[in-house]
Design a protein that fits this description.
Length: 101
């Protein structure tokens, strides 16, 4: 059985995401920091779109590597189709980068 938990904190313009993994009694953590570059404020209602992509690679010798990328983008209701295009472009770009690590 495995459990994952994300802990998100923001301070001084930096967002830190700590993902805690527990599988088969072993606990690990991943840390990622992102600089906040802009915050959008709108008086109009917003929508959001989400996209996820994943791929599993066979490494041989009964081992595999799984890559999963998700993104959620806020958008105006009239821009949902363009936001989905942007979200999947981000997913494809990030999957490509991570597949070659």
């Amino acid at each position: 059985m495995s459990d994952n938990q994300d802990i998100i904190t923001a301070e001084n313009g930096v967002v830190e995401v700590v993902t805690q993994h527990r599988a088969n009694g072993i606990e690990t953590q991943e840390h990622e920091e992102k600089q906040i570059t802009a915050i959008a404020v709108s008086d109009q209602p917003l929508a959001s779109v989400s996209a996820t992509g994943s791929q599993t690679f066979n490494l041989g010798n009964y081992e595999s590597k799984r890559i999963a990328v998700s993104v959620t983008l806020p958008c105006a209701p009239s821009e949902i189709n363009q936001a989905f295009d942007s979200a999947f472009n981000i997913i494809n770009y990030q999957m490509n980068i991570r597949a070659h690590r």
